[in-house]
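The records we work with from here on pair a chain with its fold. The integers have meaning only within a learned vocabulary of local backbone shapes. A complete example follows; check for yourself that the lines match position by position.

:::
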Amino acid sequence: MEIVMGLVKEGLWTCFVIALFAILIKYPYCNLSQFIALAAYIFGYSVLILKIKTMSKLLALFFCVLFSTSPLFAQEEAIFVSEAKETKEHPRLNVGDKASSFRIKDVRGNNVSLVKILKKNKLLLVFLRHAWCPVCNYRTHELLENYTNLKKHGYEVVVVYESNAANLLPYVKDLNLPYPIISDPEGKLYQTYKVEYSLAKAQASRTNKKMLAHYQKGNKLFGGKKYKKEKKEERSTIIPADFIICKAKKIEIAHYGEYIGDHLSVKNLLEQTISTSHGGAEHKVKTNVRF
């Protein structure tokens, strides 16, 4: 009986390890170094603590290697290739295209209408990711610090997040954001303005120096505060985008990011605006960045 129970335990352990590594290989944010590190940890744990027999460890290791070199792993590689191809062919709005109208309530319950905004101002329409995202927090502070300057030069700002309103509202209140914030968890506006979802670009962002710098600064700007995240948001592949919509309701600038945190430069936008108003004369703008 003891022999049978021992075999059952060994078999269950082997199945557990195989299933775990199969899931990890499929998981899009697990790179090779993480895979190896976790493999070493599990087998080290089995030797020192669980004292799993050698044959079972070797069997589990064999199947892990088999999985990592099988079509399952190749399928994951194919996902990256397919996603990269999709990125190149991603349909985009272009300069001169007509901007789609929208009339929607922001997280404070106020109506936000594109037509109404364009009667007085141009619109800087910004698509971010989530309230808890440090990179988005960095961009939010940049917009907040320069909002007065943007308004002075004829721009209104509207920012769209994928976070739901309940999770987004505490963040908006904490920063006392003066411009409309729209919650779009269903992604309707993202789809309307053809905002990109790219696994390949999201992956590449993890090693992008600018993104990492914005992540660190944005994380500090939270000041220790944490905002709720939904589980599905952790695997979001949204790549931010910015649009300038002129009073004629046409796209004047369409900026689609190449990585998470790649946004239209506020400084360049203001310099270009002032230069145009001065007949093309070069004019340097000092943006308000105190972080």
User: Anything to note?
Assistant: The chain has a mean pLDDT of 78. Strands lie at 103-105, 111-113, 122-127, 155-161, 181-183, 196-197, 238-239, 241-245, 251-256. The longest helix spans residues 2-26.
